[in-house]
Design a protein that fits this description.
DNA_pol_Y-fam_little_finger; Alpha-Beta Plaits; alpha+beta; 5-stranded mixed beta sheet; DNA-directed DNA polymerase; PolY_HhH_motif
Length: about 425
């Protein structure tokens, strides 16, 4: 395994991305403490993201609105605008790509790049060029923090050291001393449960962790992840393994006036159709559907096996079955969140057809109908035809919600 002798990676993290995009788009929000919320008109929700002004007052992401208002009475709450965030993300990528090729997009507000020989010698100039281009061509209210290191993992940690709008450079000859004072919370790959396990074994700080051997780390983590983390923290060139798509799903927190079973069902239908559209765009079929509801004093979850299907009719029929089961248990309780997930994926061209259920004429007919609907909607960039009624709730954003890990596409907002 190779151990780089110089910095080879850049990791970039936009500062308070969602709130800063809102400040850039709306001048009245600039310089004010801003909290982005799922929907307007209620304090019974959380602040999804907050601006640097709100953070300075003690607010944090995923803080209850009532608590955030206590911390910062002047907090300005604004409802999320996922399509605005998507467009801002694409504009920022375009400007960064004009300076350096993007190696991987890690989330809507994080990315990583490989450095060429010149960039390794002049990281400060590279960071300044990126920041200047963002300021000139996107806006001065969207800033970023940048970390440089031998590998992606260390660059990601370095990136967090001087936020907001900072630049941190960790050359290999400096390591591992910069890691010693860091809490485990600052290390990607160490969550609360792992921290408790390490503490139980007498490993309370980074210096003790880094003194472990790779096989010992593997034993503690109970899989190869621990060993990979050891090599990453010690500056080796660790490449992330390829991942396979395991599911397609959408979820939504329901506004207070839509928390009945009837309203939740309408939203579940739209979420399911949008998840199925995403699945078909990437040429998969699904052999299972899972429905999950957050309800008063608990939750409901159930699943249904399917033949390898890809048409809306099959999925909506399956949802009707699961919803009928749910009504028997939760019809009299409020529904706070709904989530639908298509599982057991198969590449559409490689699926094993069921002679009785999947390859009959009726199934083929509905697949042709669904494909025709997709073609029409794609042609006109909107949902102009659907299987059954199409009644998105006020405010939209069903299937195109704010997201850190998945960047919505324009089609997600149809």
């Amino acid at each position: 395994m190779r151990k780089p002798e110089t910095i080879e990676r850049l990791y970039l993290d936009f500062d308070g991305f969602f709130a800063s995009v809102m400040q850039q788009a709306y001048p009245k929000l600039r310089g004010r403490p801003v909290g982005v919320v799922p929907f307007e008109g209620t304090d019974r929700t959380v602040v999804i993201a907050c601006s640097k002004e709100a953070k300075a007052a003690g607010c944090t992401n995923v803080m209850k609105v009532l608590e955030a208002r206590q911390k910062c009475p002047s907090l300005v709450l604004v409802p999320q605008e996922p399509d605005l965030f998507r467009r801002a993300h694409n504009a920022l990528l375009s400007e960064i790509s004009a300076v350096i090729p993007i190696d991987a997009i890690k989330s809507i507000d994080e990315l990583t790049c490989r450095l060429d020989e010149r960039q390794r010698q002049e990281p400060e100039d590279l960071a300044a060029t990126i920041k200047d281009r963002i300021a000139r061509f996107v806006g001065i209210y969207i800033t970023c923090s940048i970390g440089f290191a031998a590998n992606r993992h260390l660059a990601k940690i370095a990136c967090k050291m001087d936020k907001p709008n900072g630049v941190t450079i960790w050359h290999p000859n400096m390591m591992p001393q910069p890691l010693y004072p860091l809490p485990f919370d600052d290390i990607p790959g160490i969550g609360e449960r792992m921290k408790a396990r390490l503490n139980k074994l007498g490993v309370y700080d980074m210096q003790r962790l880094l003194a472990l051997q790779p096989k010992h780390m593997r034993k503690i983590w109970r899989n190869v992840t621990g060993e990979r983390l050891w090599y990453a923290l010690h500056g080796y060139d660790i490449q992330a393994g390829s991942s396979e798509r395991g599911m397609y799903g959408h979820g939504r927190v329901l506004p207070p006036d839509l928390r009945t079973m009837k309203e939740a069902r309408e939203i579940a239908r739209i979420l399911l159709v949008k998840a199925a559209r995403r699945m078909r765009r990437e040429n998969f079929a699904a052999s299972g559907l899972v429905l999950w509801l957050a309800i008063t004093n608990g939750s409901f979850g159930d699943g249904l096996k399917l033949p390898a299907v890809r048409d809306d009719k099959a999925f909506l029929d399956a949802l009707d079955i699961l919803w009928h089961r749910a009504e028997g248990e939760v019809a009299w309780r409020k529904v706070y969140r709904v989530h639908v997930t298509l599982i057991d994926l198969t590449p559409a061209k490689a699926r094993q057809l069921d002679m009785l259920l999947d390859d009959d004429r009726e199934r083929q007919r509905w697949e042709h109908v669904t494909d025709a609907q997709d073609d029409l909607n794609r042609k006109y960039s909107g949902t102009i035809v659907s299987t059954g009624w199409w009644n998105p709730p006020k405010g939209g954003n069903v299937g195109g919600k704010i997201s850190y890990t998945r960047i919505p596409r324009a089609e997600d907002f149809w």
